[in-house]
Design brief:
This protein has about 160 residues and is mainly beta. The chain is built from one helix and twelve strands, in the order H-E-E-E-E-E-E-E-E-E-E-E-E. It has one helix spanning about 1-15; strands spanning about 55, 60-65, 75-80, 85, 90-95, 100, 105-110, 115-120, 125-130, 135, 145-150, 155. The strands form four sheets. Strands 4-3-7-8 form a four-stranded antiparallel sheet, with no helix packed on it. Strands 5-2-9 form a three-stranded mixed sheet, with no helix packed on it. Strands 10-11-12 form a three-stranded antiparallel sheet, with no helix packed on it.
Length: about 160
Amino acid sequence: MRLFLLAWAVITVCGVRPALAQSADSRPSAAGNAPERIALSNRPDRSAARPARLMCAPITGQVFDPNGQPLVGATLLIKGTHQTYVTDALGRFQLSDPVYEGQILDVEAAGYTLQHVALDDCTLPRLVLAPAPDARFRKHGKKAGQVMRLNHRSTNLK
């Protein structure tokens, strides 16, 4: 009796019908609905080319302003990742995480325009950032090279 109740519970909960209860008419024929068939899964092609990992980590470089002076505090971001780097006091940086062919490196600094660099091989070009058209820099004194105005607002650096 217990076995019968257990089987009945499984049938009602799972919706399982015994094979004898199904009629031959309820099953679709293979030839009758060929144009109406739907693919249930669309698996990605495993043979698709994946980007190659560049075997030159770490990649080092340096960021300069148009006058040839190193840019301190320039930010570098590899698009599509959370890998962010900042240049040191000599404008140098080191990409220590793995880099894949075809990734884009965004280089920017306050008062300078954004530059996109494609990472196709292990060598980087000389990274020189152009000043933003609305940025004003200090020309003389102790704080020469600092941004004074950006987007028509004073940066109020002291």
